[in-house]
Specification:
The chain has about 180 residues and is α+β, with helices and mostly antiparallel strands. It has helices at about 1-15, 35-45, 65-70, 110-115, 120, 125-135, 170-180; strands at about 45, 55, 75-80, 85, 90-95, 100-105, 145-150, 165-170.
Length: about 180
């Protein structure tokens, strides 16, 4: 248990989460490893200090796996709708919906908690720059919204040239899923 607390302390120091926005019901955490149950008990749903990364309640985003045929559970996302997901063994993956790309970030349960706080592994510099510009303009994402690109990447858009607007994350990802 001490190692889990230590991993959570490292996460807290690097991620600097907001106060929990809401608790996560442990009965809805499915087959997440016990270390991640402690993590959710500690942090609940929260966002990073700059709002770029959100810790999500996996049960609120269970539609993601069905939409993209994924066998992982979403645990966090960025403000552009890219996700960080766990499998039952505690391995952490990044998932880029616009490319249907799932990449392993960590193959160890405790390191997955720490990895989620490491900006070098979670932050795309182009998206983070756009996020900061949107926040400065007063366009701030909420738990169920994200920055959307128009046109979306599968239809010829890009992270640097597409128009950015604030939209419903589920509707946006449904559009991406239909286009990929």
């Amino acid at each position: 248990m001490d190692r889990v607390i230590e991993a959570c302390d490292i996460f807290r120091e690097s991620f600097q989460p907001s106060k929990p926005i809401k608790p996560v019901d442990p009965s809805k955490l499915g087959k997440l490893p016990k270390e991640w149950r402690v993590f959710y008990d500690t942090f609940g749903v929260a966002k990073r200090k700059d709002g770029f990364i959100w810790i999500v309640d996996p049960s609120d985003y269970d539609w993601l796996g069905q939409l993209f045929a994924l066998d992982v559970m979403p645990v966090a996302r960025n403000s552009f709708g890219d996700f960080f997901c766990l499998n039952e063994q505690g391995r952490l993956f990044s998932f880029l919906p616009e490319y249907r790309q799932l990449d392993e970030l960590s193959n160890h349960t405790l390191m997955s908690i720490v990895t989620l706080s490491e900006k070098e592994l979670t932050d795309d510099t182009t998206l983070l720059r756009s996020h900061k510009a949107e926040v400065k303009a007063g366009n701030i994402t909420d738990y169920d919204t994200c920055y959307c690109l128009k046109p979306i990447i599968p239809l010829g858009g890009s992270e640097t040239t597409s128009q950015i607007y604030l939209g419903d994350i589920k509707a946006y990802l449904e559009l991406i899923a239909q286009s990929t």
